[in-house]
Amino acid sequence: MSIRSAVVGAAVLAALFLGLKMYGSAQHRKGYDKAQAEYMVAVAHAEGRARQIEQQKQKEVEDVRADYQKQLDAASGAAISARADSDGLRGKLKAANDRAVTEAARAGRALDENTRITAELRNVVGLCTARYTEMAGVADSYRGDLMALQGYAQSVAGGP
To answer: What is the average pLDDT score of the chain?
Structure first.
């Protein structure tokens, strides 16, 4: 074996070794790039899912708020209507009291006491009506608060 064939053999081996090393490096880089791309896709998917869940929870909270506001509006409307009815009844009671006083004056003193008692009883009924209307408004408000809290708790818990 000659020196020349030894040098050529060494050069071929060195070229083969360098070629294999470069091929391995390229394969490594290709695998790394593929894994990196898969990782980025997984991250993007996870972020998208997290945004979707967050938006869903926000919508549920907004739905609970909207339902609560509707209940408050309905309770407020009912209270206004009850006040109007109560005011109308008070007006009718006042008119009845005025008529009773007029009739009592015509009928004489014997009816004065009965008229006074009747007027007082009508006033008591009017006061009771007003108080019950106020209590109904407060009860409606508490009911609305309770339903809103229950709705919020269900949306947070993920229930139906």
So the answer is: 82
pLDDT digits (tens, 9 = 90+) for 45-73: 999 999 999 999 899 889 888 888 888 88
Rounded distance between C-alpha atoms, residue 92 and residue 96, angstroms: 6
Residue 90: phi, psi to the nearest 5? -65, -40
In terms of Cβ atoms closer than 10 Å to its own Cβ (0-12, 13-18, 19+), residue 32 is: exposed
Answer left, alpha or beta for residue 66, where phi above 0 means left and psi between -120 and 50 means alpha: alpha
* Spatial distance between the Cα atoms of 137 and 67, rounded to a whole number of angstroms: 18
From CA 43, how far away is CA 8, in angstroms rounded? 52
Q: What is the pTM of this model?
A: 0.46
Handedness of CA 40, 44, 47, 53 (dihedral sign): negative
Residue 67 CA to its chain's centroid (Å) = 7
Using alpha carbons only, give the angle 65, 137, 91 rounded to the nearest 5 degrees: 140
Please give the full DSSP string across 39-60, using - where no structure is assigned: HHHHHHHHHHHHHHHHHHHHHH
Which residues contact residue 85 at a Cβ distance below 8 angstroms, ignoring those fewer than 6 apart? 133
